[in-house]
Specification:
The protein has helices at about 15-25, 30-35, 55-60, 65, 85-90, and strands at about 1-10, 35-40, 45-50, 70-75. It is of the alpha+beta class. The protein has a single domain (about 1-90), classed as Alpha-Beta Plaits, CATH 3.30.70. Strand 2 and strand 3 form a beta hairpin. The radius of gyration is 16 Å and the shape is elongated.
């Protein structure tokens, strides 16, 4: 399993904001009920970190209404002695991540 950050934006207006929060809290999902929100600081997004096998599994946690705009980011922690591994990955992938097996693009 890997850790994934899920970022879910929602419209800025008060009604849409309240609706998004209500959908999450009433979903019955432990993940969604414990999302962090940025609305009070002007960032109308929810964030959660989940441990699942791939990006598609992470996306399935997101309510269908919000999946199209959700952003799924695989998180990696490097130890000091592993820092060079991150540079090797960066050099091998010049911005095109299409060869990453768990890459999903919502709405496509």
């Amino acid at each position: 399993m890997s850790a994934y950050l899920i970022e879910i934006p929602h419209p800025v207006d008060k009604i849409a904001c309240m609706h998004a929060i209500q959908v999450f809290l009433e979903s019955g999902s432990h993940f969604l009920a414990n999302a962090d929100w940025g609305c009070q600081d002007g960032e109308h997004k929810a964030w959660l970190v989940v441990n699942v096998d791939n990006k598609n599994q992470a996306l399935q946690i997101v309510p269908p209404l919000f999946r199209h705009d959700a952003k799924i980011i695989k998180l990696v922690k490097y130890m000091k002695e592993q820092a060079a591994e991150g540079f090797k990955y960066h050099e091998a992938n010049t911005g095109n991540l299409s060869d990453e097996p768990d890459r999903i693009i919502p709405g496509q």
